[in-house]
Automatic annotation (TrEMBL):
GO terms for cellular component: endomembrane system. It is a multi-pass membrane protein. This is Aa_trans domain-containing protein. The keyword Transmembrane applies. Residues 29-420 form the Amino acid transporter transmembrane domain. Carrier protein involved in proton-driven auxin influx. Mediates the formation of auxin gradient from developing leaves (site of auxin biosynthesis) to tips by contributing to the loading of auxin in vascular tissues and facilitating acropetal (base to tip) auxin transport within inner tissues of the root apex, and basipetal (tip to base) auxin transport within outer tissues of the root apex. May be involved in lateral roots and nodules formation. The lineage of its organism: Eukaryota, Viridiplantae, Streptophyta, Embryophyta, Tracheophyta. GO terms for biological process: amino acid transport; auxin-activated signaling pathway. It is found in: Endomembrane system. Belongs to the amino acid/polyamine transporter 2 family. Amino acid/auxin permease (AAAP) (TC 2.A.18.1) subfamily. GO terms for molecular function: symporter activity. The chain crosses the membrane at residues 31-50, 57-78, 117-138, 150-170, 176-197, 255-278, 298-323, 343-363, 369-389, 401-426.
Length: 438
């Protein structure tokens, strides 16, 4: 239904009514398969090239492998809880905040919104840094003069992302681009996998010991655990589920099973092989570790750049949806008013993103902080608690205990991860300056 932004009221249990606007974007159009690819694009984005260094190095073989498998299972479980609440109370909740508002009332609506946008803003900023790093990696393959610094490449990446955002009106409009995105993902994953495998077979025995002092090991382990969770979770499941056609819960579960089986295999492969090949000296951007023909590495880096542009659009779409709905942008995507609105507003939003990216390129630490203060609460604590509240009469006492246990464990992890991330930021801000050329 493409109806314009008519505010509709939703009444929670005795809570204040929350104004829920209809959406200016398309909903209920896409097959579960297309939505499965949207989810898989998020998981196999260029971020996977960093997991050997960011997850495996601090956790080692046993911690890394067990951690990844556990994070996959826990994330599938938490996401399925949110997916099952999509039609709670006889109404579709097409935004995370609508669902929280319906269950808890007005304050939760605003809080969920704030957490979600902080999370998505940081993910987008990370994508622009990644895109800049991929472009810089191409440059370094051909020129070693350091004339072009990372912030310049970040600026170019931001510009390309803005052009793509102006040309792609909403999440469902990605259709053909999801095919390209999957192709680009496969290119850099296969190249990184094959070159790492070749290097690993030729290399002398590697050192797999976990680097650092015993204190720093504790903190890096906690940080890596936050990155594990960050790897699998979008923090915008209801928004993605809104694009799926009926029956929404059944189709979304199919998409989630696809994401967490077929979808995670490329990520596993490249993460494990990267660590196996280079041990604890693996870099946080795997294509910088591999040796091989320059043209192959060029294609892989260009693919990583292009895929990042498409993936960023997915994580920016809740922001675009809010702005389009707020200002009644509907009808033809090519109408002058709609084009100029997207040009100004999305361009402005991405300009801010790009500035933050160039300013703080050691964003991995901020990612861990975002994971701690928004991904954990949104995806795990809130998912379990919303399910408890929504289904309270239907759950046995052991099921209730199970959900409370989840809430407590993830609450503690969230606090620990936040402390660990703040410590990293403090340490790194002594080492790096703003607009650093990493």
């Amino acid at each position: 239904d493409d109806s314009a932004s008519r505010p509709g009221k939703v009444q929670g249990d005795g809570q204040l009514a929350v104004e829920v606007p209809e959406t200016a974007h398309q909903i209920s159009r896409d097959s579960w398969f297309q939505v499965g690819f949207v989810l898989t694009t998020g998981i196999n984005s260029a971020y996977v090239l960093g997991y050997s260094g960011a997850i495996m190095v601090p956790l080692g073989w046993i911690g890394g492998v067990v951690g990844l498998i556990l994070a996959t299972a826990i994330s599938l479980y938490a996401n399925s809880l949110v997916a099952k609440l999509h039609e709670f109370g006889g109404k579709r909740h097409i935004r995370y905040r609508d669902l929280a508002g319906f269950i808890y009332g007005k304050k939760a609506y605003s809080l969920t919104w704030g957490l979600q946008y902080a999370n998505l803003f940081m993910i987008n900023t990370g994508y622009i840094i990644l895109a800049g790093q991929a472009l810089k990696a191409v440059y370094v393959l051909y020129r070693d003069d350091h004339d072009m610094k990372l912030p310049y490449f970040i600026a170019i990446a931001g510009l390309v992302c803005a052009l793509f955002a102006i040309g792609t009106p909403h999440l469902s409009a990605l259709r053909i681009w999801l095919g390209f995105s999957t192709f680009f993902s496969l290119v850099y994953i296969v190249v990184a996998f094959v070159l790492s495998l070749r290097d690993g077979l030729q290399a002398p025995p590697r050192d797999y010991s976990i680097p650092g002092t015993s204190t720093s090991k504790i903190f890096t382990t906690i940080g890596a655990a936050a990155n594990l969770v960050f790897a699998f979770n979008t923090g915008m499941l209801p928004e993605i589920q809104a694009t799926i056609r009926q029956p929404v819960v059944k189709n979304m579960m199919k998409a989630l099973y696809f994401q967490f089986t077929v979808g995670v295999l490329p990520m596993y492969a490249v993460t494990f092989v990267g660590y196996w090949a280079y041990g604890s000296s693996t870099t946080t951007y795997l294509l910088n570790s591999v040796t091989g023909p320059v043209w192959v590495k060029t294609i892989a880096n260009v693919s990583a750049f292009l895929q990042t542009v498409i993936a960023l659009h997915i994580f920016a779409s809740p922001m675009y949806e809010y702005l389009d709905t707020r200002y009644g942008i509907n009808g033809s995507a090519l109408a002058f008013r709609n084009l100029s609105f997207r040009f100004t507003v999305r361009g402005g939003y991405l300009a801010i993103n790009t500035l933050v990216s160039a300013l703080l390129p050691f964003l991995g630490d901020f990612m861990s902080l975002t994971g701690a203060i928004s991904t954990f609460p949104l995806t795990f604590i809130l998912a379990n608690h919303m399910y408890l509240v929504a289904k309270k009469s239907k759950l046995s006492s052991s099921q209730k205990l199970w959900h409370w246990l989840n809430i407590c464990i993830f609450g503690c992890m969230s606090v620990l991860a936040a402390i660990s991330a703040l410590r990293l930021i403090a340490l790194d801000s002594k080492t790096y300056h703003v607009f650093a050329d990493l």
